[in-house]
Design goal:
Radius of gyration of chain A: 17 Å
Number of strands of chain A: 6
Radius of gyration of chain B: 14 Å
Helix content of chain A: 40-55%
Oligomer: heterodimer
Number of domains of chain A: 1
Number of helices of chain B: 1
Order of helices and strands of chain B: EEEHEE
Number of strands of chain B: 5
Strand order of the largest sheet of chain A: 2-1-3
Distance between the termini of chain B: 54 Å
Number of helices of chain A: 6
Largest interface: A-B, 16 and 19 residues
Distance between the termini of chain A: 24 Å
CATH architecture of chain A: Orthogonal Bundle
Shape of chain A: globular
């Protein structure tokens, strides 16, 4: 899943990726209008819950409300990192960074046990996420492979040199606020 | 949709594309290459001394179809 926005002349910017287990529009629970589009970037199973039901749960259980609040704060931290990544890092670092983030998030959700992730996103979607052309995404993935940091097979990404990928991506998992992120 | 390959680099280093991108014909592939060349230039055009950056398009049979390049030339202004 991804959240996306379109510019006036129709260019798509993917503003976040969601991994299985995420609640994509939790921030929308208290806002009356959705200000972005959520779209599936690959085959996905979605669960829907009414906002009034969510609010009722939060009214009854302060601890659950706090967990939801914390989740939206982490989403905001991810958005801040996303802006920094797209705005200030070069393409090679940008790509390494997003791969590190997705691998850590999938690991935190218990979906992967090691540094091998199935990422069913196209090069075009990665380009729209990173603010790059598809050809340049293709090139930097090629560079990461050539430098022995990743191995790819279809949609399967293996960070064969995790420490190297973290260095290449200027990646510090603090902003994800996951207990397991630093020991991964 | 056919798969096209985009080799890129300069006279010193060429990165061969082993994965390719699906495009609706050579026109679309050329458009993709132009956008790629802009990104390539933004990041790698550093030498004022006639450095040339290029992207060369191949088809699935390895045939070279087009080469797009940009280079920077600097010279002192006439006084």
């Amino acid at each position: 899943m991804g959240s996306t926005k379109l510019t006036g002349d129709g260019k798509r910017q993917i503003t976040s990726f969601f991994v299985p287990g995420d609640i994509p529009d939790l921030h929308g629970m208290h806002l009356s209008v959705l200000d972005c589009t959520f779209s599936s970037l690959a085959r996905a199973s979605l669960g829907f819950m009414r906002h009034d039901a969510m609010r009722a749960i939060c009214d009854r259980h302060a601890s659950i409300a706090a967990i939801f609040w914390r989740s939206t704060l982490i989403d905001a931290a991810i958005y801040r990192e996303w802006v920094t990544n797209v705005g200030r890092r070069d393409a090679y670092t940008r790509m390494a960074h997003i791969l590190c983030e997705l691998i850590v998030r999938l690991h935190s959700m218990g979906i992967i046990k090691d540094h091998v992730a199935n990422l069913p996103v196209t090069q075009a979607a990665l380009a729209d996420a990173l603010g790059l052309s598809t050809v340049h995404v293709n090139r930097v993935l090629q560079e990461l492979r050539r430098n022995g940091l990743i191995f790819t097979e279809g949609t399967r990404f293996h960070a064969v040199d995790w420490a190297g990928l973290v260095r290449a991506g200027d990646f510090d998992a603090t902003y994800l606020h996951q207990r397991t992120a630093t020991t991964f | 949709m056919a798969r096209y390959f985009f080799d890129s680099g300069d006279r010193d280093v060429v990165l061969k594309d082993e994965v390719g991108i699906g495009c609706d014909g050579i026109g679309s592939a050329r458009h993709q290459a132009i956008e790629g060349l802009v990104d390539l230039t933004r990041e790698f055009l550093k030498d004022l001394n006639g450095q040339e950056l290029f992207i060369e398009i191949r088809n699935e049979h390895g045939e070279k179809l087009a080469k797009l390049s940009l280079s920077l030339h600097a010279q002192p202004s006439a006084q």
